[in-house]
Structure prediction request, 107 residues.
Amino acid sequence: MHASRRLILIAAALAGAAVAHADEAFRCGKWVITSGMTLGEISSKCGEPASRTSRTEDVHVRNRNTGLMMKTGQTRTETLTWNRGPRAAAMVVTVVDGEVRSIERKP
Prediction:
């Protein structure tokens, strides 16, 4: 199998795994927030998050010629939390490389 085809298959598998997260819809005032929205849309409807953390991780693939792992780039994951008051669970939004990947209740 060619390396480019293998990379495409790996990327598709990772994308499928990311979609498998539990997605929920939340209310922010009169708005319904879903993972199909951009971070800008969510922020404009819910305001600034109460907390924000981020991490950057290296992306590695195995070199088919040498069998060694090699760095091919980086990915950035942000976790943003909105507190929605004492009677509602906090909303946690996970953003990977600028794209909203999941919206969940804070455990």
About this structure: Residues 22-105 form one domain. The beta strands are 26-28, 31-33, 51-62, 69-82, 91-96, 99-105. The two ends are 42 Å apart (CA to CA). The chain is about 25% helix and 40% strand.
